[in-house]
Specification:
about 280 residues, alpha+beta, Protein Transport Mog1p, Chain A, eight-stranded antiparallel beta sheet, about 30% helix, elongated
Length: about 280
């Protein structure tokens, strides 16, 4: 059927085929009364209308509902108001005396981290050499120096601003010809979000992506983890470089530890460093 063909009305009747024409006959002189009555009946049947009985029943139901409502209002208006039960309100004795004493500096972690953050760094072992790669910044890393430690410093700088970077304290040392350690305490303002927890989570993500890695939870940190990467980084002309790291956080400070050596790094070394550093926080 063509798309623009008119659609038949569903309520319309289908056309009736014309009856076969009979031979002409003489017309009667006068139609019988019964035949005349049949001639007055229309060809189409009429639709049955709604009777008056249903309308009367609906009207009576509405009047009955109104009468019942009016009677209820009249009965309720003549009654005395009912007293409500009293509410149960137990008497609570008021606390007397002064409030609790403020936390001491040893108990208040915020007092610790608001001071000289460098004093919370794990101390350098005796006989170890100071890290000359850290420069002459007296153990501090500003936002620019910290961003430079990333593979993409420009993007890291923008992220650190968004994360409300405050400051970072860093220490490091070397022992022998290949063993080196670097420890960072990165502090955030945390006025909008828990950036320290996010920083530790980011460290877990990247550490876990390296192949052939063993990991262990750091006791007392909740979600702190230490990692040992068993597969060394090798380049022609260089000694193999093994790596271990640890990430954790407490309050507004994220902890980052890296250990490098030309031979495999035992679990005990990275775990000992991570535990001792978190204890100082």
């Amino acid at each position: 059927m063509p798309e623009d063909a008119p659609v038949a009305d569903p309520g319309a009747r289908l056309p009736v085929e014309p009856a076969p024409v009979e031979p002409a006959q003489a017309e009667p002189a006068q139609a019988e009364p019964a035949q005349a009555a049949e001639a007055d009946v229309p060809a189409e049947p009429r639709v049955r209308r709604r009777g008056r009985t249903a309308l009367l029943i609906a009207t009576a139901a509405v009047l009955g509902l109104v009468a019942g409502t009016c009677t209820g209002f009249v009965v309720q208006a003549d009654r005395e108001p009912t007293q409500l039960a009293p509410l149960s309100q137990p008497t609570v004795a008021q606390v007397k005396g002064d409030g609790p004493e403020p936390l001491s500096a040893a108990q208040d972690h915020r007092v610790k981290t608001d001071g000289d953050l460098r004093k919370l760094l794990v101390p350098r072992p005796k006989g170890a050499k100071s890290a000359d790669w850290l420069g002459d910044d007296d153990g501090w890393m500003d936002i620019g120096s910290y961003a430079e430690s990333y593979e993409k410093p420009a993007g890291a700088f923008r992220e650190l601003i968004s994360d409300e970077y405050r400051r970072a304290a860093v220490t490091g040392w070397s022992s022998g010809s290949t063993y080196t350690v670097e420890v960072r305490l990165v502090q955030f303002r945390q006025e909008e979000k828990l950036a320290a927890a996010d920083a530790a989570e980011e460290g877990h993500y990247w550490a876990g992506r390296k192949s052939d890695t063993s990991d262990w939870p750091v006791p007392g940190t909740g979600d702190g983890v230490a990692y040992v990467h068993n597969k060394p980084d090798t380049k022609p002309g260089y000694l193999p470089l093994y790596e271990a790291e640890a990430h954790a956080w407490r309050g507004d400070v994220a902890m980052e530890i890296w250990v490098y050596d030309s031979k495999p790094i035992p679990k005990a070394k990275i775990m000992d460093l991570a535990e001792r550093q978190m204890e100082r926080l």
